[in-house]
């Protein structure tokens, strides 16, 4: 028999405002006014930006990486005579040519020296500096964005037991969902469902909306988890949703980086192309920001991988970006150029690029970005990442 306990615990049932609910999912969505769309992808595990967008024009790269990041002669795609794109991103070459794909090199959060994935991701998603103690990083910068945008309201959908997205956690309402969870009820169950919740102010509207959303989603094929997430996010973004965030795991490549990075970048390609296909004409108003908690060491290690570092790269995609270029100031890889003598030196704060994207997409003023969304951040000059 369907009851409130089963509603909360059952894997097939869903609903409730995620802002006040303990469960968060692999995909979280929020509404905001306007026609522009923002997708934030957290690449968990510290992606090696030096392998994704390879500075083969720096003569020191070959000495530091005799088998990794080998540039065009090793199969990477030359971008501009200095940088080359990892071969696993080949499906995205048409987007680069169309100005819908770009990169930012040598960026990082303020996180330094401790090299913990947990702390690095906490800081990335909180959007604060290291002066804020970990126990006070209770909300994420996307939620603070929502708090700065008038007219935001929530839709209902959540997943159970899936990965949390702290970047969207906070006091502003938002919705969450896991595509593998589909609410399917027969006629009798539907009547019981309605009877159970129609007088409950906490669950009646969320439950009805969850049913409505579930009916619009196609069935998920086995093994298409990330593709399904991207397809679901695109479907919601075609409607009233304007912000979506989810994560891709598996970037901690201490050993066997060639295989691990190829798999990860293949997933990024699939996700971006799925978003583009699903968004249709709305792709032109979409900005995708893919960011990671920190970079990796400049030199490869003896295991065919790279260890935790500092400076990394950010991936930009979407019809709204001014792609076809690599943004950022290149610090060099020579003697004296590296951070702490071992890592790529960060020359910009990754939060500044996200902040300028939000200003362009949602009309936020500089004071809101520097004071509320990313407290204490100096945005600096506009890098003009949007078209």
What distinguishing features does this structure have?
nine-stranded mixed β-sheet; single chain; 387 residues; three-stranded antiparallel β-sheet
Report a brief summary of the structure.
This protein has twelve helices and twelve strands.
Number of helices: 12
Structural class: alpha/beta
Question: How widely separated are the two ends?
Answer: 54 Å
How much is the average pLDDT? 84
Helix content: 25-40%
Total DSSP E strands: 12
Helix and strand layout, with pairings?
Layout: H1 4-9, E1 27-31, E2 37-43, H2 49-52, E3 53-54, H3 60-64, E4 77-78, E5 84-85, H4 93-97, E6 101-108, H5 117-126, H6 141-148, E7 175-177, H7 187-197, H8 204-216, H9 225-237, E8 241-248, H10 257-279, E9 286-292, E10 312-317, E11 326-327, E12 348-349, H11 350-362, H12 366-373
Parallel strand pairs: 2-8, 2-9, 6-11, 6-12
Antiparallel strand pairs: 1-7, 1-8, 3-5, 4-5, 6-10, 9-10
Explained architecture:
The protein is α/β, with parallel strands linked by helices. The chain starts with a helix and ends in a 14-residue tail after the last helix. The longest helix is centred in the last third of the chain and has 23 residues, at 257-279. α6 (141-148) packs across α12, α9 (225-237) packs parallel to α10 and α11 crosses α12 (366-373). The protein has twelve helices and twelve strands. Strands 1, 2, 6, 7, 8, 9, 10, 11 and 12 form a nine-stranded mixed beta sheet that branches. A three-stranded antiparallel beta sheet has the order 3-5-4. The radius of gyration is 21 Å and the shape is globular. It has helices at 4-9, 49-52, 60-64, 93-97, 117-126, 141-148, 187-197, 204-216, 225-237, 257-279, 350-362, 366-373, and strands at residues 27-31, 37-43, 53-54, 77-78, 84-85, 101-108, 175-177, 241-248, 286-292, 312-317, 326-327, 348-349. Mean pLDDT is 84; it is low at 1-26 and 156-161.
